[in-house]
Inverse folding.
């Protein structure tokens, strides 16, 4: 008996594709100053969000985003059977602390900035597997919690390198349900391999992740036997300006050229004059773009088929100091209006 | 077999590295140098003014130097607390890191950052997380120089 649910080497195809029935996003003040303000549900006035620490603020942001996504369909957290969530902090505390209050059965995910796609495809597998009818996939990242964990204290007077990216303060949550409702569906997903091309500069994660993104996109198209123009938009998570310039070169090398349908959330999320250097990054980057403008455009019918390729750089400050190169990963999820 | 595969991988990594270096934006060296020179120079000029003031008040050159350091460190700490020093540092780079004010900034920034983890395991344990290396190697070098002075002086 052949496996109908897996296609090619790395792609899973959902038999009864789960539907994205509602979603929400809360972002930070800087993201609110970007081009998509009206597409986000809520823009925080400051980075504390009424809490005593940035970590608490991130937890609150994630928790409130999930509550908001759930309430849009008049559900309460008790109606949700599974929460699949992750963030950038050590021991993914933002997610588990949010789950502590929401009391939804919880699976923690860590895929660095690729966590949104990882959570979505895990939740979708749980639903299409027939175990659950309703799940929520969510992620968060916060500029100041990420800075203090991965880089420098906030008030330290340092110069950021030109290739460094700005961690997006934002959370996104998507409610997925068994495919009996209308709405964009998660039809298939490609689980990426770790690709490490020996890049070591932790201030240039776009370069470290670009080969993984190129590999996953190529594998996805091969596995599904699709051409790049099958999708109205192929969007990577947070390669930023440097990474997306590199991935375009790699597309040419691989013989798959999705342009002009290709873009990158890290490039899109901020305006050029916001002084982020190479654009946005972090779990919240593609989560905010997905749960903000992208899904909105899908509902409006402006995008019928979207391939979200969330990219992650799986290093820690410890491995960087020990001279290890940065392992990159990318997971792709295909969202389609059927 | 294995070695040729390894070699291929190495060549691929090298090729990719070349591509990255072509694509990466170049650091704005000239602009950074000018900013560092101007801001660093201004900080030093301010120090000189304060030094002259103390000497004018009758302090010896050595005492006036110590008093100037105290004032400069205080100002840097104050500016860090007000959230101004990181804005300065973003443009000035080495110009605001190298003077004694940069050292004060590194310590105060760490203290502010880790206060939420408490005074013992937060501030106490991590106040030198950025400035620590400067202290360690500063002390090491001073010991070496001291020894040289004892032996040859």
């Amino acid at each position: 008996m052949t496996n109908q649910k897996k296609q090619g080497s790395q792609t899973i195809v959902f038999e009864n594709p789960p539907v994205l029935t509602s979603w929400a996003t809360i972002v930070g003040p800087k993201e609110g100053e970007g081009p998509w303000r009206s597409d986000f549900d809520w823009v925080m006035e400051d980075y504390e969000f009424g809490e005593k620490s940035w970590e608490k603020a991130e937890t609150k942001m994630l928790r409130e985003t999930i509550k908001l996504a759930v309430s849009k369909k008049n559900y309460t957290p008790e109606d949700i059977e599974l929460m699949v969530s992750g963030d950038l902090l050590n021991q993914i505390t933002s997610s588990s602390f949010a789950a502590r209050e929401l009391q939804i059965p919880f699976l923690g995910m860590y895929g660095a900035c690729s966590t949104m796609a990882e959570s979505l495809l895990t939740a979708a597998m749980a639903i299409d597997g027939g175990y659950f009818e309703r799940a929520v996939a969510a992620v968060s990242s916060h500029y100041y919690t990420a800075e203090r964990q991965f880089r420098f204290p906030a008030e330290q007077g340092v110069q950021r390198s030109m290739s460094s990216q700005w961690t997006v303060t934002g959370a996104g949550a998507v409610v997925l349900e068994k495919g009996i409702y209308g709405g964009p569906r998660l039809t298939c997903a490609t689980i990426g391999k770790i690709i490490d091309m020996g890049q070591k500069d932790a201030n240039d994660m776009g370069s470290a992740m670009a080969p993984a993104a190129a590999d996953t996109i190529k594998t996805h198209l091969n596995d599904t036997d699709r051409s790049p123009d099958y999708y109205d938009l192929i969007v990577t998570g947070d390669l930023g300006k440097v990474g997306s310039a590199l991935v375009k070169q790699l597309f040419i090398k691989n013989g798959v050229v999705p342009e002009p349908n290709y873009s990158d959330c890290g490039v899109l999320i901020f305006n050029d004059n916001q002084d982020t250097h190479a654009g946005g990054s972090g779990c919240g980057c593609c989560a905010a773009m997905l749960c903000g403008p992208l899904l909105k455009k899908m509902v409006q019918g402006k995008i019928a088929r979207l391939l979200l390729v969330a990219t992650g750089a799986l290093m820690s400050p410890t491995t960087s100091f020990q001279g290890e190169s940065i392992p990159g990963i990318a997971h792709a999820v295909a969202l389609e209006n059927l | 077999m294995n070695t040729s595969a390894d070699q291929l991988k190495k060549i691929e990594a090298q090729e990719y590295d070349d591509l990255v270096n072509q694509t990466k934006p170049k650091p704005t060296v000239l602009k950074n140098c000018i900013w560092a020179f101007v801001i660093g120079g201004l900080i030093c000029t301010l120090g000189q003014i304060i030094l002259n003031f103390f000497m004018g008040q009758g302090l010896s050159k050595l005492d006036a130097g110590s008093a100037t350091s105290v004032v400069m460190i205080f100002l840097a700490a104050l500016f860090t607390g007000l959230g101004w020093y990181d804005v300065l540092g973003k443009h000035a780079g080495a110009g605001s890191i190298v003077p004694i004010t940069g050292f004060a900034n590194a310590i105060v920034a760490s203290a502010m950052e880790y206060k939420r983890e408490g005074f013992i395991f937060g501030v106490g344990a991590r106040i030198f997380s950025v400035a620590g290396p400067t202290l360690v190697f500063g002390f090491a070098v001073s010991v070496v120089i001291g020894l040289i002075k004892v032996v040859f002086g």
About this structure: Chain B touches chain A at residues 12-13, 16-17, 19-20, 23-28, 32, 80-81, 83, 85-93, 96-97, 102, 105-106, 108-110, 112-114, 116, 129-130 (CB under 8 Å).
